[in-house]
Amino acid sequence: MTQISKLAVIEPGAQIGTDVAIGPFCYVGPHVEIGDGCILHNNVTVVGHTRLGEHNVFYQNTVIGEAPQDLKYQGQPTETIIGDRNVFRENVTVHRGTELGGSRTVVGSANLFMVGTHIAHDCIVGDGVILANQTQLAGHVCVEDGAALMALVGVHHFVTVGKFSYIGGMTPVHRDVPPFMKFAGDPNEVRAVNEEGLKRHDFTSEDIDVLKRKHRQLFRNSCSIAESLEKLKSQPEHNEHVAYLCDFMRKSCQGRFGRYLEAKRRDTRADRRHRMPAEVRED
Amino acid sequence: MAQIAPTAIIDKSAQLGDGVRVGPGCVIERDVRIGDECELVANVLVCQGTRMGSGNLMGAGCVLGEAPQIKGVPRSASGELVIGEGNTFREYVTIHRGSSYGGGKTVVGDHNYLMAQCHLGHDVEMEDHVLMANLSNIAGHCRIESYAWLCAYTGAHQFVTIGRYAYAAGYSAIGRDAPPYMKVAGDSPSRVRSLNLTGLSRAGLGKESLVALRGAFGVLYRRRKGQTLGEAVAALDAEPGLDEHVRYLVDFLKRSAQDRFGRYRELARK
Hints:
The complex is a heterodimer of chains A (283) and B (270).
Chain A lengths: L2 E2 L4 E2 L4 E2 L4 E2 L4 E2 L3 E3 L4 E2 L4 E2 L2 E4 L4 E2 L4 E4 L12 E4 L4 E2 L4 E3 L8 E4 L4 E2 L4 E2 L4 E2 L4 E2 L4 E2 L4 E2 L4 E2 L4 E2 L4 E2 L4 E2 L4 E2 L7 E4 L4 E5 L1 H6 L4 H15 L5 H9 L6 H15 L29
Parallel strand pairs in A: 1-4, 2-5, 3-6, 4-7, 5-8, 6-9, 7-10, 8-11, 9-12, 10-13, 11-14, 12-15, 13-16, 14-17, 15-18, 16-19, 17-20, 18-21, 19-22, 20-23, 21-24, 22-25, 23-26, 25-27
Antiparallel strand pairs in A: 27-28
Chain B lengths: L2 E2 L4 E2 L4 E2 L4 E2 L4 E2 L4 E2 L4 E2 L4 E2 L3 E3 L4 E2 L4 E4 L13 E4 L4 E2 L4 E3 L8 E4 L4 E2 L4 E2 L4 E2 L4 E2 L4 E2 L4 E2 L4 E2 L4 E2 L4 E2 L4 E2 L4 E2 L7 E4 L5 E5 L1 H7 L3 H15 L7 H10 L5 H14 L13
Parallel strand pairs in B: 1-4, 2-5, 3-6, 4-7, 5-8, 6-9, 7-10, 8-11, 9-12, 10-13, 11-14, 12-15, 13-16, 14-17, 15-18, 16-19, 17-20, 18-21, 19-22, 20-23, 21-24, 22-25, 23-26, 25-27
Antiparallel strand pairs in B: 27-28
């Protein structure tokens, strides 16, 4: 049974599923679809062309689907797509895509977004990700499955955070974060294999030992990464995780600034010359 | 007589004291007690299990007593948030109630000032006269002693104790117990930099105590090469007739050193 507070405002055109609960002072815009079983506590705002999957929970002061904070956004009806069983805690913001960035921001399922986190335009977040308090993803960031970002982390545009990685608190992330690794520090460093995270995601101890050896071979010897990657190709224990890690490193190292996704940048010099947001521009 | 805006939603079982002002869009859940002369500016949420004394100010968008951010703990989980009197919680401050894992209570004392977007995690114990500047975030199970001063964007790791009259510079990542009377700064993790002289003179400590603390700082943090902090603490500990504040500092450091991460409260972790 869907229950909508009398003090919530739902615009005509919004599609609300079954067993949805919407608390007082929520605002749902006309182009929003809310999946079955979602719970919006009070003071939640969902606007734009936004699709929420099933059984998501939204705490107070959350804003989903708002306009990107990007001067090159032209005001088109871009999308925000959110999967199932995510928890959005207080003051979380998710912004919709920009035209040049793929026109959509995508969030997967079973994620936990803690107080004050921010997912900017054109981000792609996988499943089982944790963003701790106040962690901010800039535009076009890709966070793969199972990654855990601790509090007050700032992730630069176009960074890819590899799957099952762990980023220590207060780290300004400038470059791609290798999968399965712990990553922290300014300047950024790969510290060790994310053993605790891998155990929690049911990696076998053999898998973890193999990754520990590969970590040493890649990040703890005196050769360059390119040479280490070459050597690893011919060695035994090249299982699927090691192959994933090597492919990731290869792509990142070829990427500008160590960010593989920089190759997907579509804005031109002209796009970057805007000095005011579309809403208040005079031309 | 409480003054309540027509758009505020207050559960019948909530108890509001005299002179309480509740602004528009506020939500007060069941089993909440709010003391005299408290003010809730607008869109404030006070969740079940919260009780507070008199004279507290809650700015727009505050959320007090919400469920802990622990995977698997539902929003309906019971727990308490106990707040004293004369505190100021500015806009979008979030304080989470206790978890059953941690003993069930988050406690905030008197006359604290939490600026915009500060956060106290579940099971935190905060004493009195603490100041937290914008976006300071305190993880679960921490303890913040009286007169500690946290600058903007500081983050405290879980189970950390921040000693009284400590000062944390902006963007400090406090990964270990922060000793009383000291300034800590930096990340990866923060380190003791100097004595918190400004805080101590504001606190009105006597001249003898200031001199004693200066001496203690030198012994502890300006050690000769090769001497460990533990050895310096032991040397101070052995001295007779220590000033009461130096004794407090030495005892604090001895407790922290018992845990391998330098976080004394980790020892109580189940």
